[in-house]
Design brief:
The protein is of the alpha/beta class and 366 residues long. It contains 14 helices and ten strands. Bound molecules: fructose -6-phosphate.
Length: 366
Amino acid sequence: EKAGFDHFMLKEIHEQPKAYRDTIGSRIDGSGERVVLGEVKLTPQQIWDIHNIHIVACGTAYHAGLVGKSVIEQLARIPVETDVASEYRYRAPIITPNTLVIVVSQSGETADTLAALREAKRCGARVIAITNVVGSSVSREADDVIVTWAGPEIAVASTKAYTSQLIAFYLLGLHLAQTLGTQDATYIRETIEALQKLPEQVEQILLHAEDIKQYAEQIAEHDDLFFIGRGSDYAVAQEGSLKLKEISYIHSEAYAAGELKHGTLALIEEGIPVIALATQEHLLEKTVSNIKEVKARGAQVFAIALEGNHEIAKSVDLVFEIPRTVALLAPALVVIPLQLLAYYASLARGNDVDKPRNLAKSVTVE
Ligand code: F6R
């Protein structure tokens, strides 16, 4: 059942090229110029009437929602807030009939996410669910459902569900942009082309899993480390940090690179590993200056950057290159080495990778 892999998690990491292909599926028209989200019944007028969007989810799905916020804001220019469901429900969120609420849930059964969905509906909002389980509670109660075709996810640590959620956000963002006219046809076509290249690029990254394994064996000796990034790299850093904590039990924190000097820099000492995500090249100069701040205090910096980025390569101790894509889509690639890092660190520590202590796959209690 593990198809020759040692763990479900590793199998599911390797299933991502297929999960991307299946989630993109027939949601792009034959010309390759338009996204066709047939399952979303929102009319053009309803899309025009959206004043704001709330994305609500828990854990890894929440982290997909953080990327979703930047994707939708950039593509469709609609203001988006992303919340964890257990907070959203109790903070009397300002929901109007012009609010679109997007709930994200792999299982479609998470108690807090389901409660947030119900609260949104009670306030008159329209709700889109992004879920991996057809027929789940969330999918039955939402107005529209975008199914992520990742297939069953068995490992407690979510991998292919997260990346399929990112693909769903790209498709939804493009769908909204097409309707609103916020991006021109060339931009949409180029983004679609780049989207269609992702599965093959994930395959290329997976060929270099051994490099990540070696690095993971080094960090398995540490008790604390940091992830830093800017823009969507910061959102992915939070997911990388959660994945590592969850299965390797190594403490880590994800920081917006520019925030370090407002307090956390005090924790940087000789030899501490810092993992810097640097795919957002328009922010490169700033990220490099943050890398210099931690290096000056003795940090060992491992960067993940787009292929051929010499500026990063010369500023850090070790660099892992991922294939080039557009900045918007980089989260769907940069997270792959982070999943492998968590996996191999957990393995090096002799943990039960697929069933980490204290955790359950589906959280149906509040
Ligand atoms: C972490 C993980 C959890 C889930 C969270 C929400 O790897 O899997 O953080 O993402 O419990 O679950 P779903 O998406 O089923 O609502």
